[in-house]
Design brief:
It contains ten helices and no strands. It is mainly alpha-helical and 382 residues long. It comes from Arenivirga flava. It holds the Pfam family DUF7847.
Length: 382
């Protein structure tokens, strides 16, 4: 007996399975979007027309691109930086050395009654002269930051600009950069004056005990100023980029930097501190051993400071130390400026879709069409 639960087709000729109704089709499985994968699977990586891929940047890309700035366009970057750093270093050494030479001469020529007063004045003049290299370095660093920012931004589009071209792009912005640097310097000087004033006030009111209390307060105040400087320095680190690339006023650039760093404070601070540590460590590895050797050699060759072949060798070694320091510092300056510019581009990509604007600009140029400046805000483009 057959199983009634199993159906069998009827035997015999002339039988065929029932046909489907007209217009009916079997259901189709839903199609899925292409998944990221190798070439040929429907996914392509973001374009990289120049220095960086046109997408938000991770830490490895940021660090690698900061190294590539020098290698990709060495003449305007390395040459200009070495020239600028060398000039400021030589001018600072000349001013400080000249003032120190005359100040020591005044002390030696002073009478016994006036020696204390002359010594105090001479020390004060040397301290003031020592500020000259710091001021020159800050002004030079401001100009350098503008040039490097332009190189990084234009390099992201695949451009390789020479120094005259970069200088033309920076036309009208150098004064704003120097003004920003002067403002930072003025705030720093006011902070140092405030710390010194606390110590002096304590000494004037309470003698030795008051001076000790004043020093303790000054130390706490100084630590607080360091924290404040780190916070403000991070929040306002994009001011030079906004001044140069977006051609904003100083007030607008301050607000712009403040808004771009919102929500990414610790990332920006951490990357800048890490890069600064790497740069300073590399510069120290290059310069510290040589400085130690030069100092020891000078003491052995000319222990009494007498002139002669040994002194000439010591002077030559000292000059070599200065040259190597300038070269190492120049590389470090370019890296630090590059990282700030790259972080600025990264923040605009993440918050404003700058990567899409840059891709459209690259496509338009490849098609032979004229494109607007992609780094200017949309409301300010001409």
């Amino acid at each position: 007996m057959s199983d009634p639960t199993q159906w069998q087709a009827p035997s015999g000729a002339g039988w065929a399975p029932p046909s489907a109704p007209a217009g009916w089709a079997p259901p189709q499985e839903p199609s899925l979007p292409p998944r990221p994968g190798p070439a040929g699977s429907g996914w392509t990586p973001p374009p990289k027309p120049g220095l960086i891929p046109l997408r938000p940047l991770d830490f490895g890309t940021l660090l690698g691109a900061s190294f590539q700035v020098l290698r990709r366009n060495p003449k305007p970057m390395f040459g200009f930086t070495v020239l600028l750093t060398g000039l400021t270093t030589l001018i600072g050494l000349a001013v400080t050395g000249t003032v120190a030479f005359f100040a020591i001469g005044r002390i030696d020529a002073a009478t016994a009654e006036d020696v204390d007063l002359v010594t105090a004045g001479s020390i004060g003049s040397i301290i003031v002269a020592a500020l000259v290299p710091m001021v020159l370095s800050m002004l030079a660093f401001a100009v350098l930051q503008g040039i490097v920012t332009l190189e990084v931004a234009r390099g992201s589009l695949g451009e390789r600009n020479r120094l005259p071209q970069l200088w033309r792009l920076a036309k009208g912005r150098v004064g704003a950069l120097i003004g920003w640097s002067a403002l930072v310097l003025a705030v720093g000087v006011l902070g140092l004056v405030a710390v010194a004033g606390v110590i002096a006030l304590g000494a004037a009111l309470g003698g030795a005990v008051g001076a000790a209390v004043g020093i303790a307060i000054a130390v706490v105040l100084g630590l607080g100023m360091v924290v404040l400087a780190a916070w403000l320095g991070t929040k306002l680190s994009f001011v030079p980029s906004a001044l140069v690339l977006e051609r904003r006023t100083l007030r607008e650039a301050l607000h712009r930097s403040w808004s771009l760093t919102a929500g990414a404070f610790w990332r920006i601070l951490g990357i800048q501190l890490l890069v600064s540590f790497i740069v300073q460590t590399a510069v120290s590895i290059v310069t510290t051993p040589l400085s130690f050797i030069v100092g020891m050699a000078s003491a052995l060759i000319a222990p009494n400071g007498e002139l002669g072949p040994g002194a000439a060798i010591a002077i030559g070694a000292y000059v070599l130390t200065i040259v190597l320091t300038i070269i190492a510092s120049s590389v470090g300056y370019v890296m630090q400026c590059s990282v700030v510019a790259l972080l600025y581009l990264d923040r605009r990509m993440r918050t404003e879709g700058l990567d899409l604007v840059l891709q459209r600009t690259v496509d338009a140029r490849a098609a032979g069409r004229e494109a607007e400046d992609p780094f200017m805000p949309e409301v300010r483009r001409s």
